[in-house]
Amino acid sequence: MRARVIYNPTSGREMLKKNMIDILQILEEAGYEASAYATTPEPLSATKEAERAALAGFDLIVAAGGDGTVNEVINGIAGLDNRPTVGIIPAGTTNDYARALKIPRSNMLDAARVIAAGNVIPMDIGQSNDTYFINIAAGGYLTDLTYDVPAKLKTIFGYLAYLVKGAEKIPQLKPMHMRIEYEDGVYDGMASMFFVALTNSVGGFETIDPNIVLGDGKFTLFIVKTANIFEILQLLAQVLNGGRHLENSNVLYTHTSFVKAESKDGSRLMINLDGEYGGDAPTTFTNHPQHIKIIGNTSDYADPIEEVDEDILAGAGTGFMKEVETLHPDEVNDKRLPYDGKN
Fold this sequence. Notes:
Elements: E1 2-7, H1 15-29, E2 33-38, H2 45-55, E3 60-65, H3 67-77, E4 85-90, H4 96-100, H5 108-117, E5 120-128, E6 131-133, E7 136-140, H6 145-148, H7 151-157, H8 159-169, E8 176-182, E9 185-191, E10 193-197, E11 219-224, H9 229-240, E12 251-256, E13 258-263, E14 270-273, E15 276-280, E16 283-295, H10 304-326, H11 329-332
Parallel strand pairs: 1-2, 1-3, 3-4
Antiparallel strand pairs: 5-6, 5-16, 7-10, 7-14, 8-9, 8-13, 10-11, 11-12, 13-16, 14-15
């Protein structure tokens, strides 16, 4: 068996490069003839190498880096008839996909040992036009944050950079007329954003959809109908507070095998695929059930990062919810204008 580790040498403050010999040794001890490829600044470097390795007959491709590296590797093999198994060694900012598969995010060698254990999970992937996504697609306002946050800021401050940028952009929120078709119906009305998710881990949070089932051939679809700042803050608090947003009247929530989205009022509806610009609507999101075999963690390993995250988020959710509940709409509307139910 042959394994190819495709790694981003700049991820994780270059710790991948420092640990690569040990990572390769763990794979060798698991029976693989292992080699490594460092991605370059050339566009789609990881995608091209993943496709080359797959066509060369490699049995395992390891995506080592952040969510962007994982996305590129998947895009390199998703369109092929013979697709290698994929392993993940997380070294990015949020590592949402690794979090969803319970892969250790605080220790690269522990992540390599999960790959060596070889527990395969058949995972769905999504497709929009010619591009595949593994975790989430989105459209509307605030979904362009990943384009606006500088890469260096992401590396230094992690998800805090997104929160700061998001707070800065909230006053710019406004609704647009969207038409979104899904398996059980059509939403035709005003909305500020929508999300099409494949896992329960988005932006470092694991409470997006408590009912999600990995590999069931279904997307989780959320449509946020409001652009009112006060109501958006309430939604964010409910996300942090155990998934209470699912019952909010300002959210349409369902599971579906496809989504078709378009703007109906001439507004530009930009699409975000796993944190990268994926073109403009109209577009169709297609679910490919159990399309990629990905190695996940089925052990009882407790990631120290995970424990810290849960404590922080639990505290943040409680505190943030209390703060929001004491707010009056006048306090969050721009220029303290009288609240009339509109942004």
